[in-house]
Structure formats: C-alpha cells, structure tokens
Amino acid sequence: MGLVERLSTKYPDEKSEGHLTSDGQGPPPYSPASSADLSAPSSLSSAPGTTLKLPQSFWLDYRWHSSTSFIGAEKGERDFAVTVPSRMNCFAHRAITLRDGSAKDSPALVSVKGQKGSLGRRSVISLPSMGEEDPGQDIVGAFGPGGSSKGFDVTLENGTVEHFEWRRSMGDEVKNLASGCQGWKLVRMDSPYTLAGGKEDFPPGYTSDGREVVAAAAYPKMFRNSPRFEFLGSGARGEMGVRFELVAAISFVRMYEIAMEQASAGSASS
C-alpha cells in the first residue's frame, strides 16, 4: 500500500480553521457564473471584490481512490468537478480537467497535463475557446519542485500578457487560509500595483520584492486534510478576468498532484 492509500486510511478528513474577514464573518455565499458567461466579453465585468467564475475561496475535496474530485466554496460542497483519467502516475500525459459543474462529464473549463519529454518538470495548461474571436491558448509552465521555474504567462481578456509565479510559502497568506499548513502564494510579476522600496515599506499582500500576491494555497502536512485555495488582491476583484482564475486554479491542482506524487515516491523508496 502506497503513501496515499495509507494516509487516506489513517487520517480521515478533518475540519481545518478557515479564513475569516476582519469582521469575523466568512466569505459571502458563492454563486458561480454560467458557461454562457465565458463567451461574452461584456459579461466579464465585476463589482469590486468579487471573482468572476470561481469562488473567491474554495476547498479541493480530493478523492484519493476516485477519478473525480470536487471544488466547493464550502467544505463538502460540489460546485465544480476535477477529473483525472488515471491516478497511477500524475506525470503521465493525461489531462487533469476542471469542469463547469459537478458531473464528471460537465463541459471542460481548463485542463493541464505533463509536457512530453519533460519528465514531469513542465506542464501544459489548455484553455478552450471563449468565443468566435478567441482561439483558446496553451500555456507552458513549471509547477512543483522539479521545474527550473514556477512561472507562466497568461494572455488576459484585454489582450495583455502577464507573467505569474508560484512561490513556496509559510507566510501569513497561507497561515490565514488554514492553520498548521504549508503551501504556495501566486505572485503577479507584472502587476500595476508593484511597489518600490525596502521590505519594511510593504503592506500585507505583497512579497519581499514588492510584488502583489494574487492567490494563496495551503495543504496540510502528510496530506491529512483537504487543501484550500483563495484569490487575493486584484485576483479576488476579478480584474484579470476568467482566464486568470482558471489558470490559477488548475495550476494549484497540478502542484498538489505533484506534491502528493513526490511524497508517495519518497515513501516507497524508503
């Protein structure tokens, strides 16, 4: 029995401490946009402080022994399905797909798979077309410790190309998301909100080099509980559009798969 099977048997799902707003309340109820909204640029406008397609904060209900996992704004909810054809090897060239609904055959929103010839070090994220004038896009990036970089470029709905980078973190963004966890923060490298100056000048939500943190993800040590993800800053306000939200979410799922696979391989070798 591998690490994943042992852990899922030994450690049943436990409730983690969630992130609360400054007034002590949780996030507002989540209501996802419909598939039709993705193909209409005019529908991509958003009130301040809201995401466009995905929940601002969500849990990944990872099903160890199933090809279908779920994303939900609250723990145990099934707002979106995440399908994986095979759990035997997450580096295989088979796509992990985030779907627009809880059914395993719901329309695909975005997918990710290992890039051929990269031995799992690089991944390809595929975004389908969002309209007649949008051919979709493939994004190559490296997620996880094995890659030379954890960055990727996204062409946003307004046509600009921005660079993002996942960084391992145990900082406040991760600690506030779920207690006792390790994780990552997603940094907007080309943000108009980039700050200059020394580290002491940076407010919460910025890295030590003055870059804006637009998302964070936390997962418990030994995979004892469900991982959690949250959009932050301009990522939580819907400023960068649906494409950014989808790419951020699926890259997080990919990194979690890689972390799980590497932990399992390390356990087997010992």
Give the helix/strand layout.
Layout: H1 3-10, E1 57-61, E2 68-72, E3 80-83, E4 96-99, E5 108-114, E6 123-127, E7 137-141, E8 151-155, E9 161-169, H2 172-177, E10 181-188, E11 212-220, E12 228-231, H3 233-236, H4 241-269
Antiparallel strand pairs: 1-2, 1-12, 2-3, 3-4, 4-5, 5-6, 6-7, 8-9, 9-10, 10-11, 11-12
Question: What can be said about this structure in brief?
Answer:
This protein is an alpha+beta fold.
Describe the protein's architecture and organization.
With 270 residues, the protein is of the alpha+beta class. The chain is built from four helices and twelve strands. The protein is globular, with a radius of gyration of 18 Å. Mean pLDDT is 76; it is low at 1-30 and 33-47. Residues 1-49 are annotated as: Disordered. Residues 7-20 have a biased composition (Basic and acidic residues). Residues 32-48 have a biased composition (Low complexity).
Cα(first) to Cα(last) distance is 13 Å
- Order of strands in the sheet with most strands: 7-6-5-4-3-2-1-12-11-10-9-8
Mean pLDDT, all residues: 76
Inertia-based shape: globular
Helix content: 10-25%
Task: Give me the count of strands.
Answer: 12
> Which stretches are poorly predicted, pLDDT < 50 over at least 5 residues?
1-30, 33-47
Counting DSSP H or I runs of 4 or more residues, the number of helices is 4
Largest sheet: 12 strands, antiparallel
* Radius of gyration, in angstroms, nearest whole number: 18 Å
Helix-and-strand structural type: alpha+beta
- Please provide the ordered H/E string of secondary-structure elements: HEEEEEEEEEHEEEHH
Proportion of strand residues: 25-35%
Q: Can you tell me the number of structural domains?
A: 1
